[in-house]
Amino acid sequence: MELLRDDNYFMKQALIEAQKAFEQDEVPVGAVIAIDNKIIARAFNLTERLNDVTAHAEMQAITSAANFLNGKYLNGCTLYVTLEPCVMCMGAIYWAQLSRIVFAASDPKQGYINAQTTPHPKATVSGGVMESEAAELLKNFFSSRRK
Questions:
Q1: Are the beta carbons of 84 and 127 closer than 8 angstroms?
Q2: Is 69 helix (H, G, I), strand (E, B) or coil?
Q3: Known catalytic residue: 58?
Q4: Which of 58, 84, 131, 133 is catalytic?
Q5: Per-residue 3-state assignment (H helix, E strand, C coil) for 85-104
Q6: Which residues are registered as beta bridge partners of 30?
Q7: 62-74 exposure pattern, b = at least 16 Cβ within 10 A, e = fewer
Q8: How many other CB atoms sit within 10 Å of the CB of residue 49?
Q9: Of the candidates 45, 121, 35, 42, which has an alpha carbon nearest to the alpha carbon of residue 83?
């Protein structure tokens, strides 16, 4: 019997990655990429550790998934990420040709929607999956840094 996994399952996995980022004093954003009901990449923000502004969770996950598939295009793959992708990440998502993007919390200041960037025309986007859990983790992170 095949175990069917839904968006909540995969977003929970992305939240586990975000928690790892939180524990390492990184902005708590996590991502997973799945294909055929299987996770092929896991990542979280590494911008502080690597001193690299491009080391967002999505960028790390795209690189990992491309290595796993031995190709640069991620057709048929779904990206689950705990925060709405920024313009840079949406550009990479576009060029990698991910089929689906699912994010948890919106990012009205730095997200791709406010910047009027669009995903690949063949891609679909869903937002708000486990939004409250992701937003709470982000809120806790930033409030702890302001003390």
A1: yes
A2: helix
A3: yes
A4: 58
A5: CEHHHHHHHHHHCCCEEEEE
A6: 44
A7: bbbbbeebeeeeb
A8: 13
A9: 45
